[in-house]
Write a structure and sequence with these properties.
Helix content is 32%, strand content 32%. The chain is an alpha+beta fold and 113 residues long.
């Protein structure tokens, strides 16, 4: 089994910057996919929350403080991930940071299955 290397980034977007953030990630997605060794990439917007396990999640109806987005970016190895993250920061960090309530959070590691 090959263990790919992935990063999960959390973006906490200002409520008045949602449209701008979504336009930006739509524009850069194709370039992200083209980074050497990219296996998969997904953005997710948090729309639901659980009130009780075993029941369907409840749709969020209002924005409190921010809207959370997650980026899962998977690569064939740590070297290609490192190059792609550097490219991402070099090209988009300042533009993205202006849209967030706080710096984004990055978690990374190898897949286990």
């Amino acid at each position: 089994m090959k263990n790919n290397f992935s990063g999960v980034l959390l973006f906490q977007v200002k409520p008045d910057k949602i449209k701008e953030f979504e336009m930006l990630i739509t524009d850069i997605l194709e370039m992200q996919k083209q980074q050497s060794g990219c296996v998969n990439i997904n953005y997710m917007k948090r729309f639901y929350t659980f009130d009780e396990i075993g029941k369907p999640p409840r749709e969020l109806t209002k924005i409190v403080k921010c809207v959370k987005y997650f980026l899962h970016w998977e690569f064939d190895n740590i070297e290609n991930y490192t190059k792609a993250i550097k490219w991402f920061f070099d090209n988009y960090e300042k533009q993205i940071q202006k849209l967030l309530i706080m710096p984004f959070d990055i978690n990374s590691g190898y897949s286990v299955c």
